[in-house]
Design goal:
The complex is a heterodimer. By secondary structure, chain A is an alpha+beta fold. Helix content of chain A is 28%, strand content 28%. Chain A has one domain. Chain A has five helices and seven strands; from the N terminus they run αααββββααβββ. The longest helix of chain A is centred in the N-terminal third of the chain and has 22 residues. Chain B has two domains: 187 residues, Cathepsin D, subunit A, domain 1, CATH 2.40.70; 146 residues. In chain B, the strands form two sheets. Chain B has a seven-stranded mixed beta sheet. By secondary structure, chain B is mainly beta. The chains are: A alpha+beta, B mainly beta. At the A-B interface, helix 4, helix 5, strand 5, strand 6 and strand 7 of A face strand 6, helix 3 and strand 21 of B.
Chain lengths: 158, 399
């Protein structure tokens, strides 16, 4: 085998291994209401997995879940995750993404006699959570009202 | 009774059809008299807790046998794919259905993901019969099966389980939207790792892939005739009502009762399942969903309508009836405007006997969801992906 091909194959293998490690690194998600530093401590793999869009009032960290669902995390200048959004063929791991707010979500969706069907809209204290779309196209977002940076409206989170 | 000329011609044609079918005996003539229409009802459903719930009856049979059970109160859903039935609704036939196995002999189960929750349970093969149509030996999901009582953590992380009559509000879901399978992204060789299909050995379940033919799927595509789409017809509702009766007709242009006539075709994005809706100069991804029980769109800031106090906070509560309009546009650039009205949900719900609410709306920032009220007073066709119709190939909506 020519050396350059061997080398190319080696590089390819490394890329595949890197991608594989990214795919199994589910702890790459930050958690709503927590500090983004916990994500960055996941190391170099994560930096490659995340596309960071810096902004004046906040930055957006774009991730792709293992399922192929796109996840965005909205991070304040102080490093707090104040919002998350998702879109894809299936839902992301909401227990991980919402953290302590996951239980509020599951409790809020099972109540009233006449509830919204196929759309979730929850306003419980600080948490706003919305989910919609349909089978094979699930979209949603969640944010904390009190944690929105100055000058940032809810419509920024999408 | 006074016969008009049209009626006499209609009756004469009816006799001719029966006569032709009676003496012809070929497959095409047999198809012409196949009963392709099932009754629909909008009411509170079998759990008496639904607003704008569209229901029909589906018969589930052990494959190739006459061991069948008719299940009423099955939700008709134009934005999902596949038949899902509560185990509690098919007690006499559930154990006779054929459990689907993977190559290792593990039982296949499913965490079907909807935008408001999940349904969990085994995948089994059944003959599915609706009106005079049959989908023979297709994979369906049995929800809330006691042999699969533990929902895997990965599944419950995707949403809140709707595995009981109370939480589902229906005895099952008849998913007959514009696509065929429920999770192409779960097929081998795709992105994988979806918390959707599971292989279970005993009570231990792990995520697996399932090939397209073995996935839970739209039963209409598996019919031997009238299999290119559906027609949902519901009468208009000028105000809240106790119930509405309509029809679900299978096939597009396959019989005299499902001709496209002058319906406009809006082709659907084959990846997302969506069309586009423009509201006040902004465009949103949108869809027509009998399984959504209101007009779900935008938010209070964009519409000027506040949401209701809890527990009806999933709906709008404007001070007065609010008239709106929006424009739908298909991938084929066909477009047309829709006028609709939203009323105060708490006022609507104060009518304790009503289950039909043509002016019910709620917030939804991600998409523009034309729920069941859109279907009141309309004839809406859904053409299935890959199907051939007089209006062109599916997937499309036409109304």
């Amino acid at each position: 085998m020519p050396n350059f091909l061997h080398c190319a194959r080696g590089v390819l293998l490394q890329i595949v291994l890197l991608i594989s490690s990214l795919l199994v690194c589910s702890s790459a998600f930050a958690v709503l209401g927590q500090d983004i530093a916990s994500v960055q401590s996941d190391g170099a793999h994560l930096k490659a997995a995340v596309r960071i869009l810096p902004g004046r009032n906040y930055s957006i960290h774009e991730l792709r879940a293992t399922s192929g669902t796109a996840v965005k995390e909205f991070v304040s200048p102080a490093g707090h995750v104040f919002g998350v959004s998702w879109q894809g063929p299936t839902a992301p791991d909401l227990r991980q993404l919402l953290g302590e707010y996951f239980d509020q979500y599951t409790q809020a969706v099972q109540t009233a006699r006449r509830v919204a069907r196929r759309v979730v809209h929850i306003e419980t204290g600080d948490l706003i959570l919305e989910s919609g779309g349909h089978m094979r196209f699930i979209v949603g977002r969640a944010y904390l009202r009190s944690k929105l940076p100055d000058g940032v409206g809810a419509d920024a989170i999408h | 009774m006074q016969f008009t000329r049209g009626r006499i011609i209609g009756i004469a044609c009816g006799f001719a059809t029966v006569w032709l079918a009676g003496c012809g005996g070929s497959g095409s003539h047999k198809a012409a008299i196949n009963n392709n229409s099932a009754p629909l009802v909008v009411n509170a459903g079998p759990a008496n807790n639904y607003a704008n719930g569209l229901f029909t009856t589906v018969t589930i049979c052990a494959p190739g046998t006459s061991n069948c059970q008719a299940v009423s109160g099955v939700l008709v859903d134009t934005m999902s794919y596949g038949v899902r039935i509560l185990a509690s609704a098919i007690p006499s036939v559930n154990n006779a259905l054929a459990q689907q196995k993977d190559a290792n002999g593990s039982s296949v189960a499913e965490c079907a993901q909807f935008s408001d929750g999940i349904t969990w349970g085994p995948v089994k093969k059944a003959d599915v019969k609706i009106a005079g149509e049959e989908a023979a030996g297709i994979p369906i999901q049995v929800i809330g099966d006691s042999a699969f009582s533990a929902v895997p953590a990965g599944c419950s992380s995707a949403g809140s389980p709707e595995d009981s009559l109370q939480s589902l509000g229906a005895n099952g879901i008849l998913g007959i939207g514009p696509f065929v399978q429920d999770c192409p992204a779960c097929a081998p060789g795709t992105t994988n790792n979806q918390n959707f299909y599971y292989a279970c050995a005993g009570s231990s379940c792990s995520v697996t892939t399932v090939g397209l033919p073995d996935q839970v799927q739209n039963p209409v595509a598996a019919f031997s005739v009238d299999n290119n789409g559906i027609l949902v017809e519901l009468p208009a509702a000028s105000s809240s009502a106790v119930s509405l009766n309509g029809s679900l007709t299978f096939g597009i242009g396959t019989q005299t009762n499902n001709s496209l006539r002058n319906a406009q075709v809006y082709t659907i994005n084959p990846n997302t399942g969506n069309i586009s809706t423009t509201f006040k100069t902004k465009s949103y991804q949108s869809f027509l969903d009998t399984g959504s029980n209101a007009y779900f769109f935008l938010d209070s800031a964009a519409t000027g309508m506040p949401t209701c106090p809890s527990p009806a906070d999933g709906f709008y509560c404007p001070a007065t009836l609010t008239n709106l309009s929006a424009t739908n546009t298909g991938s084929n650039n066909a477009s047309g405007s829709i006028s609709f009205s939203i009323d105060n949900a708490n006022t609507l719900f104060s009518n304790a006997t009503a289950s039909v609410f043509p002016t019910l709306g709620g917030p939804n920032t991600g998409t523009f969801d034309w729920g069941l009220p859109f279907f009141y007073g309309r004839s809406v066709f859904v053409a299935i992906e890959g199907a051939t119709t007089a209006g062109g190939p599916g997937p499309y909506w036409a109304y």
